[in-house]
Amino acid sequence: MPRVTPLSPPYAPEIQGHFDQVMRGAPPLLLFRTLAKFERAWGKFRAGSLLDRGPLSLREREIVIDRTCALTACEYEWGVHVTAFAGAAKLTPEQVAATVTGRSDAPCWSAAEQALIAAVDALHARASLSDAEFAALRAHYDEAQVVEVLLLAGFYRTVAYLVGGLGLEREEMGARFPAAQGAPCTVSV
């Protein structure tokens, strides 16, 4: 049971408008219904959202989000993103699983994707990047893209705090974390 009672329909017109904009006709997520109860928190959350077309591709964005959610054990948000975006991001089932169980240097990732995952891992572990980790990112991404990686990792860590702190149950439609398996993902062409 959530620790804060979420909003129930019918929603105020302004809130319904926000839900329609974000959810594109689908029912609003429990996280959104909970935060929308608090005008200031909902406004800050929406303002910080990074689901728009930023400097990273959809695939790159989803790799960062999925890895961040996996490292923070946030199955709720990982499952929502995998369900909603993995297909469009052209992530294979092996790659989706590798966001949870794989190493940053798993062979299913390109060199650029390995740099992304290594950066997320470092940010999670130390809240910083070494000069080598930053240089690895810059070998593949421009400055705006690197800043976007930092913002995404931080924002989705905050989402994990919200989900865990509020005790939100996994969305029914959301994917589940894969069981840990010893085999690394394979290269997809």
From TrEMBL:
It comes from the Bacteria. Residues 37-120 form the Carboxymuconolactone decarboxylase-like domain. GO terms for molecular function: peroxiredoxin activity. InterPro entries: AhpD-like (IPR029032), CMD-like (IPR003779). Transmembrane segments: none annotated. SUPFAM superfamilies: AhpD-like. This is Carboxymuconolactone decarboxylase family protein. It comes from Oleomonas cavernae.
